[in-house]
Design brief:
8-stranded parallel β-sheet; binds zinc ion
């Protein structure tokens, strides 16, 4: 049984979204959602009085028509002079909490008005759900991070405050959380980075964590997976899924019978993995492992063949040596099919390629992390050479969540145009694209859905509700392969989610 404390309505639609919400919740065993609307026509970062009022009326009427599936938050822009009037009106209409998104700081960067809202929320005894992000780039105007959230919580001990998203990027947040009696976090939104729930349990305790999904921005299943697959006790999971929310919001919930999900039979072959890594990531301690550990995990997850590259090799400049060492380390593990890393930005790339052992299953390229473009004519030789020598190619188009990358590195987003210019080349090898979003994949498949040279692994499709089914309906399973994005995600996460989205 699940209470989802963080869902949104969609802007720019008069469509009745309740059937979609009901279906998503049914599939994931969600009994109740707490919804906020951030705008009817769009989501302005500093909404006007009129924007706010329309947003709240949307939330209120959705809740009223939901037959008990939804309760709602009143959304407030503390910079609007009439926020208190709006808040009182919506509480009288049944809002059970207050939502703050980006407009917490005024144009001088001060939180003065937000502090007044928190004082008033404490008087009303209404919990306040506050968006928090610890992004690598500058925060958005008005946005706060976890350190600022904690400072506010210390100054307003009577206000019950929820840090939405828990700042998102847990590896860089250790030590920022404090166990205060007025503080909760939700796990929602963002990329399902492995280890988030366990880290939050260590930092703040399972009694202070709420389940949220950020649906309709994210698929509910990708967020449920974070808790289901986490390494914590069943009792802690139940607290996160509903007990903590029930006691914080005073919800009267009758425990349901054991929920049995109706699983979707995803036709993509789950015994292969086309997005998997070994070794250590340089930027934070990842779950990834020695070849031996990886191999036993593959056995446990039922993966017979994983096309694997070495995380530690990605930023190496002596790739000939790095590839050779990796091959030697994985040689005895039959389920690991090694990929040689090639970086055409490094002077000797051609010699690395030409001297590559035939034991490699293929090569992997990182235009995203190595900062080059697939559309750049200088690299045609590389693609032609692979084709001539029948070398299979994996192209990594993104990894992890770029909003939280190490600030000392740059990455270059791979666009639909980049992929299309690669697809238009007459001579390319069999190619698997990793980490491609639904829209870019769709733009490519519109032209190449029957071209057997190309496949996409599906991890990103499981993050957005309906994306995987939609792609299967449009193009069939022929161009899709399974990818776990291990160790950034739990190895089972994409497989688990693909049966529920
Ligand atoms: Zn949200």
């Amino acid at each position: 049984m699940i209470v989802d404390v963080h869902v949104h309505s969609l802007p720019r639609t008069d469509r009745d979204i309740l059937p979609m919400m009901r279906e998503e919740c049914r599939r994931n065993g969600v009994l109740l959602c707490l919804l906020s609307s951030l705008g009817k026509d769009n989501w302005p970062r500093f909404p006007t009085t009129k924007d706010i009022s329309m947003a709240n009326q949307t939330a209120c009427s959705l809740a009223e028509n939901s037959k008990g599936l939804l309760r709602w938050y009143v959304y407030i822009n503390p910079q609007n002079s009439n926020w208190r009037k709006e808040l009182d009106k919506c509480v009288a209409q049944g809002a059970i909490g207050i939502k703050l998104w980006l407009s917490l700081k005024d144009k001088h960067g001060k939180l003065t008005n937000t502090k007044k809202v928190l004082q008033y929320a404490a008087c009303l005894k209404k919990p306040v759900l506050i968006h928090t992000f610890n992004r690598t780039d500058e925060s958005l105007p008005g946005e706060i991070n976890i350190a600022e959230f904690m400072e506010l919580a210390r100054r307003h001990p009577r206000a019950k405050m929820i840090a939405a998203h828990a700042g998102i990027h847990w590896p860089s947040e250790t030590g920022l959380f404090q166990r205060l009696p007025n503080v909760w976090v939700d796990i929602c939104g963002g990329y399902p980075l492995k280890g988030q729930v366990e880290a939050l349990v260590r930092e703040i305790g399972a009694d202070r964590i709420l389940f949220g999904s950020d649906f309709m921005g994210r698929s509910q299943a990708s967020q449920v997976a974070k808790v289901m697959l986490s390494d914590i006790s069943e009792e802690q999971k139940e607290n996160i899924f509903y007990r903590n929310a029930a006691s914080l919001f005073g919800l009267n919930i009758t425990p349901q019978k054991h929920f049995v999900p109706e699983l979707y039979n995803c036709p993509v072959d789950a015994t292969e993995d086309h997005f998997c890594f070994c070794g250590q990531w340089p930027f934070f301690k990842s779950a990834s492992s020695t070849p031996k550990e990886l191999h036993s995990l593959l056995v446990k997850t039922g993966i017979k063949r994983a096309y694997v590259a070495d995380l530690g090799g990605i930023y190496r400049q002596d790739l000939g040596a790095a590839n050779a060492a990796f091959l030697k380390a994985v040689r005895e593990f039959e389920r690991i099919k090694p990929l040689a890393i090639i970086n055409p930005q490094v002077a000797n790339w051609q010699s690395v390629l030409e001297s590559m052992s035939p034991e490699f299953a293929g090569i992997i390229l990182f235009p995203f992390l190595h900062g080059w473009s697939l559309a750049d004519a200088r690299y045609k030789n590389l693609f032609r050479w692979c084709r001539q020598h029948e070398i299979r190619v994996w192209i990594n188009c993104s990894m992890d969540d770029a909003r939280f990358r190490h600030p000392g590195t740059v990455s270059r987003a791979v666009s639909a145009e980049d992929l299309l210019s690669y697809g238009a080349l007459a001579k390319t090898s069999t190619t698997v694209f990793q980490g491609v979003s639904r829209d870019v994949m769709d733009a490519f498949l519109k032209r190449h859905s029957r071209d057997k040279r190309f496949s996409f692994e599906i991890s990103r499709l499981t993050d957005a509700s309906g994306a995987l089914r939609n792609m299967l309906k449009k193009y069939g399973k022929g161009r899709l392969v399974m990818g776990s994005e291990y160790p950034f995600r739990d190895m089972a996460q994409v497989r688990w989610t693909s049966q529920r989205v």
